[in-house]
Amino acid sequence: MPDETSAGDDAAGDDTAGGGTWRDRHPSTARTFAHATTALSTILVLLALLMPNQLTLLTPGQFARIPVEGIFGAALLLVLPPKARRVASALAGIGIGLLTVLNLLDIGCNETLGRGFNPVFDWPLLDDGESFLQDSIGRAKATGVAIGAMVLVLTLLVLMTLAVVRLGNLMARHSATATRTTLALGTVWFACTALGVQVAGVPVAAESAAGLVQNRAQQVRASLEDEQAFAKEAAVDTFRNTPGDKLLTGLRGKDVIFTFIESYGRSAIEDPLMAPGVDAALADGTKRLRAAGYSARSGWLTSATYGGSSWLGHSTFMSGLWIDNQQRYRTITADDHLTLTGAFKRTGAWRTVGIMPGLTKGWPEASFYGLDHVYDSRDLGYKGPKFSWSTMPDQYALSAFERLEHGRTHREGQGEQRARQHAKPLMSFVILTSSHNPWAPLPKIIGWDEIGDGSVYNAVQKAGKNPVDVWKRTDQVRTEYGKSIQYSLHSLISYLQKYGTKNTVLVFLGDHQPLAKVSGDHASHDVPVTLVAHDPAVLKRISGWRWTPGLRPGPKAPVWRMDTFRNHFLTAYGPQSKRGSAGRLGPR
Q1: Would you place residue 458 in the very low, low, confident or very high pLDDT band (cuts 50, 70, 90)?
Q2: Which of 100, 202, 385, 430 has the most other CB atoms within 10 Å of its CB?
Q3: Least confident window among 49-53, 210-214, 395-399
Q4: Residue range(s) defining the domain that contains residue 93
Q5: pLDDT, mean of residues 264-272
Q6: Where is the composition biased (Acidic residues) (predicted)?
Q7: Global confidence as pTM
Q8: Nearest alpha-carbon partner for 460 in 551, 378, 392, 535
Q9: Contacts of the segment 71-78: beta carbons below 8 A, 24+ positions apart
Q10: Interatomic CA distance for residues 331 and 228, integer angstroms
């Protein structure tokens, strides 16, 4: 029987012009090269078949196992005729390569979003990942990383295909030995399964690749079925046909501001490393607002997303529907479903605006949210530098909001052409972005009269930390994240203290928890939510919610799913029965 260096082995090649083949002239080197190539092919295939889809499972014991897929694959290749064997080997190599790519995507998503990669919905997230890299390491380096990733994927597919084809050909040339080896490994696998043999707590008999393929198939099927189920769910709406004059009667005449603070999660308030600074900011803010005549109540909401995809949290909160994937988002934003902001517009009693510093291009969803006008990053007049992902500091965005909209509602007798003595009150949807990862460099609080067009932030940005340096250490990333939340809170509280009126009502909350590197493995999806008002009657309407007094929700404060908030809010601030039951609405 010929050995690995026999004719037909692609590793050697021919060189008849030099007097025989290269293998004939260098037999020892050829055998070493062939053995090394076979060994590498075997290792590559085994690593792919045994690779987990979570970083925490990536241990040596995970690879000290026998993959059943390899055994069945080898048995199949041994019984196939040569042509069919080569085709099957190539297809198997491509399949294993694609499975490896999906496993790597799973690891990335588990580390950032707290869930695996959805092969139906999550491909657009790759663009977000590239944007994050551009903000962290610069456009040129991010482009290099993107190109490198594509080359890596193509190389992986090619090498995996060549590896399986090589092993198939090798088994065909050594069919007797390969058959005995396959039968022996199969016997060992079944014995280990029956006896429950483990190494370092990991079963020796592995079937993880087959399980992952099955899970992928189930995930794809469930994702496709979810589209139809969600369409039926979205068609049911308690408030769909409620006339405008019956909506939000308890807030007429109030300026209502809904503000999302990027990545403001429960971890910021309860994690031992980050909580001291954030809790101090909340305690100080509660004291300052109380001195200005405001009171607050705070609770918890469970977000539909984690670590990113903020728009899923925004749409869940506003629509009263659970929007946890991109397909649901596309479905609902193409519908006429009543959003919380849209309810204000339906009344005809408010002007509705959006302040979206994170937007850099058109946003057709404005109509879904019922916004009369949207100010994106191009409309806010900012002339300063970006702070990593964030196009401008939160304090500047709030200053622009005051200049462009909120202040115009209240200024009178100052030569302001658009001052409106009897104008509609304002309902505002404000997105603050300074606490978006990578949390370096960070802006600083400055005097409101110093902000101007934002040029003052050039020096602040240059003096800030480099995100590459920050991300070298987990504790430093978490520390800077905590500082970013403190900055956003200080900006918002200071804005309300300076520009708020007796008719101002502020609802602010987080869109999701920060990624797992900050919040930790298995963190909840809970985010804080707070309602602040000067008028005691506004807070009296939610007395039945049992929220914690102040800006910091207590550990025993109610936890609601984020999609339930819309109905809670519309009920509490709608027409009240004589018994005032709306204020006693409990979580569902």
Answers
A1: very high
A2: 430
A3: 210-214
A4: 16-223
A5: 94
A6: 1-13
A7: 0.75
A8: 392
A9: 71/182, 71/185, 71/186, 71/189, 74/167, 74/171, 74/178, 74/181, 74/182, 75/182, 75/186, 77/167, 77/168, 77/171, 77/172, 78/171, 78/172, 78/175, 78/178, 78/179, 78/182
A10: 10
